[in-house]
Amino acid sequence: MIIFINDRPLRILSEKAAQKLPKHAHFDNIIDANLEMLKVANLSGHLLILNATSITAEKLFYFLNNFELPDLQSIYLIPKDKEAVEKRIKKMYSVIKAAGGIVTKEDKLLMMFRRGVWDLPKGKLDNGERSKKAGLREVKEETGIAAEFVEKICTTWHTYTQNNQKILKRTKWYKMRNIDDTKIAPQFDEGIEKIEWMDEAQVRKALTNSFSSIRYVVDCFWGKEIDVE
């Protein structure tokens, strides 16, 4: 499970999955929750937290949501019981489900400029709607492009506050193939200003003005990241 909190990635890995981390993986700070308390002063750089419990996770989320932490770049949380920790985190929020996609056309990817940053088409599921169908529908609504499903890419989670309610949004991402882009057009009432087909170099440049979660999805698409759902 990967959660983006204030656009900062928090990966929650089982102990088995953690053993597969690259040997060259570098952490600026390693905390063993069995041996020391989690403190704000420890939250900097690339952080690894071992033997985490639900209480550890709850305390961590409190710090992340209530302190600036400008030096913190990423967190790997290795719980004793991954399922229990994830269950506790979800109880802290109202969970909303969404779906989106990376649409391909030959060797190009579809990118759209929304509210000052480059983004990918995505949106909330309708009542009773399946994620794949929702992803295709959102692509059509936001870009005018008819696409077909190819395969799943990854799942992301991110937090935000709306009307004083804490939201945890789960988004399932799919690789899609363009079928018909003759009616391509940005959905202006959703804040989308323009839509472009981009090659890899153009996508890389666009991602410098995007969200960490979107960069993660594209890296999963290109095989540079592995989905940690």
List the helices and strands and how they pair.
Layout: E1 2-5, E2 8-12, H1 15-18, E3 29-32, E4 45-52, H2 54-66, E5 72-79, H3 82-91, E6 94-105, E7 108-114, E8 117-119, E9 122-124, H4 131-143, E10 146-162, E11 165-180, E12 192-198, H5 200-206, H6 212-221
Parallel strand pairs: 1-10, 2-5, 3-4, 4-5, 6-11
Antiparallel strand pairs: 1-2, 6-7, 6-9, 7-8, 7-12, 10-11
Helix pairs in contact: 2-3
Walk me through the structure.
This protein is an alpha/beta fold and 229 residues long. The protein has two domains: 2-91, no CATH class; 95-221, Nucleoside Triphosphate Pyrophosphohydrolase, CATH 3.90.79.10. 25% of the residues lie in helices and 41% in strands. It is built from six helices and twelve strands. The chain has helices at residues 15-18, 54-66, 82-91, 131-143, 200-206, 212-221, and strands at residues 2-5, 8-12, 29-32, 45-52, 72-79, 94-105, 108-114, 117-119, 122-124, 146-162, 165-180, 192-198. Strands 1, 2, 3, 4, 5, 6, 7, 8, 9, 10, 11 and 12 form a twelve-stranded mixed β-sheet that branches. Helix 2 packs across helix 3 (82-91). The termini are close together. The mean pLDDT is 94.
State the gist of this model.
The protein has 229 residues and is α/β, with parallel strands linked by helices.
Structural category: alpha/beta
**What general form does the structure show?**
globular
Strand content: 35-45%
Helical percent range? 10-25%
List the secondary-structure elements in sequence, H or E: EEHEEHEHEEEEHEEEHH
Q: What's the CATH H-level homologous superfamily of the largest domain?
A: Nucleoside Triphosphate Pyrophosphohydrolase
Q: Mind telling me the CATH class of the largest domain? A: Alpha Beta
Radius of gyration: 18 Å
DSSP summary, beta strand count: 12
> Which ranges are low-confidence, i.e. pLDDT below 50, for 5 or more consecutive residues?
none
- The CATH architecture of the largest domain is Alpha-Beta Complex
Number of H- or I-type helical stretches:
6
Which fold does the CATH topology of the largest domain refer to?
A: Nucleoside Triphosphate Pyrophosphohydrolase
Report the mean per-residue pLDDT as an integer.
94
- Biggest sheet architecture: 12 strands, mixed
**Domains (count):** 2
- The N- and C-terminal alpha carbons lie at a distance of 4 Å
